[in-house]
Write a sequence for this structure.
């Protein structure tokens, strides 16, 4: 596996070199520059998503956010370059120590070498907080702590014939947590996926994915130090019409977990006040391993009922590793609807349910519910006003004798005012 890691690291270095080396080629591209900015004011009834706030802080807060967005695109007949960055700054009225400036930046370069062969290189950087990142990914509440993520990847697509193509890709992510409350990690991923286009409306693909996550040393009993996973999934995608599409997939995953258990050992006795003799106990680390497998699936259906009404439905099951090095069977169901009330006003609603069950030596269970309602109004061609509200609830069961169940929840409401500038320098 170490050789595999080194090969991927070399691959990611190549992706960086590819971005730099091709910069000269894209100088002759058609460029466009598209900025926007959003000013938000929100109320959060439980901004840390906890049952009890820390001493000296309120459970609720009013949050002011300013989010500039920049998108740069360049394109030639053979080359496409994109750079997108979002930098939300948040100020908390009652708890200013949580003020933060986040960012999500990604750069990508796609080179078409021939009608059948193309490559893509990407680099990315994320600065955020674990609570929001993990809630969006799985519905599992994480301790609120600062998070840095560095991403890179390289992939290629080759058309074996008119109907059969092959995608090969590798990706690397490094996660750093300056607070040290959760372990840092390195994630390596490799994917091989052949796709058969039956016709213009139907295709079948087989996704073969291998991932390996290495965690920094942990002193918590039972926490994983390494998780390797192999996933095989067969999917079918059909475009029934211009208004109805469906994608279904199913397969199996296999995971291997390495972790450290600690065994108590008596190394003598000591005297503690008042003159009491007690054993002197130390914890001896002992490497352990476990394996787990299970069924995975995905389903997506999108339907435009009229020019004004559209709906979407998604469901799936996957293996998910949280920031505390625990592994879960994660199942979700979500749906949404959008209705164009008028030419200027759109109303939307979405709901989501996540069920997470810890695997390989754990007993934690998390059920998460999320409901969002939003009304969007185009004040002018470039000004957009959005009013939104959401409610989130999580049931947590730690399992085992004397287990307790926690049910943190929160209500949020916010107003966004967005200004989108027209595309600058666009010549295409």
């Amino acid at each position: 596996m170490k050789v595999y890691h080194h090969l991927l690291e070399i691959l990611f270095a190549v992706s960086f070199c590819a971005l730099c080396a091709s910069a000269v080629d894209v100088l002759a591209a058609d460029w466009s520059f598209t900025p926007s900015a959003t000013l938000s004011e929100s109320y959060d009834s439980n901004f840390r998503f906890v049952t009890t706030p820390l001493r000296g802080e309120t459970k609720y807060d009013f949050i002011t956010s300013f989010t500039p967005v920049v998108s740069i695109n360049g394109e030639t007949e053979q080359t496409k370059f994109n750079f997108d960055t979002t930098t939300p700054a948040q100020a908390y009225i009652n708890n200013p120590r949580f003020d933060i400036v986040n960012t999500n930046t990604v750069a990508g370069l796609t080179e078409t070498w021939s009608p059948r062969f193309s490559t893509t290189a990407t680099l990315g950087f994320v600065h955020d907080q674990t609570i929001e990142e993990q809630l969006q990914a799985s519905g599992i509440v994480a301790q609120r702590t600062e998070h840095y993520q560095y991403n890179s990847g390289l992939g290629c697509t080759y058309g074996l014939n008119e109907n059969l193509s092959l995608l090969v890709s590798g990706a690397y992510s490094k996660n750093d947590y300056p607070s040290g409350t959760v372990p840092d990690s390195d994630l390596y991923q490799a994917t091989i996926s052949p796709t058969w286009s039956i016709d213009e409306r139907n295709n079948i693909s087989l996704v073969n994915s291998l991932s390996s996550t290495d965690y920094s040393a942990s002193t918590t009993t039972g926490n994983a130090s390494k998780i390797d996973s192999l996933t095989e999934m067969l999917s079918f995608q059909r475009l029934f019409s211009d208004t109805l599409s469906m994608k279904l997939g199913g397969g199996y995953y296999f995971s291997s977990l390495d972790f450290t258990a600690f065994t108590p050992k008596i190394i003598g006795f000591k005297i503690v006040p008042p003159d009491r003799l007690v054993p002197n106990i130390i914890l001896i680390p002992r490497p352990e391993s476990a394996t787990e497998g299970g069924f995975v699936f995905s389903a997506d259906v999108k339907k435009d009922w009229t020019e004004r009404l559209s709906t979407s439905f998604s469901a799936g099951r996957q293996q998910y590793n949280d920031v505390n090095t625990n592994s879960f069977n994660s199942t979700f169901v979500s749906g949404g609807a959008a209705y164009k009330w008028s030419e200027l006003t759109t109303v939307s609603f979405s709901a989501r349910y996540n069920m997470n069950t810890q695997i390989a030596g754990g007993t934690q269970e998390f059920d998460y519910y999320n409901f969002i309602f939003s009304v969007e109004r185009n004040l002018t061609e470039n000004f957009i006003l959005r009013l939104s509200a959401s409610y989130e609830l999580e049931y947590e069961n730690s399992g085992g004798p004397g287990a307790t169940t926690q049910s943190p929840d929160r209500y949020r409401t916010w107003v966004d005012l967005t200004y989108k500038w027209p595309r600058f320098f666009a010549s295409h």
Summary: DSSP finds two helices and 21 strands in the chain. Residues 1-14 have pLDDT under 50 and may be disordered. The domain at 2-420 is CATH 2.40.160 (Porin). The two ends are 46 Å apart (CA to CA).
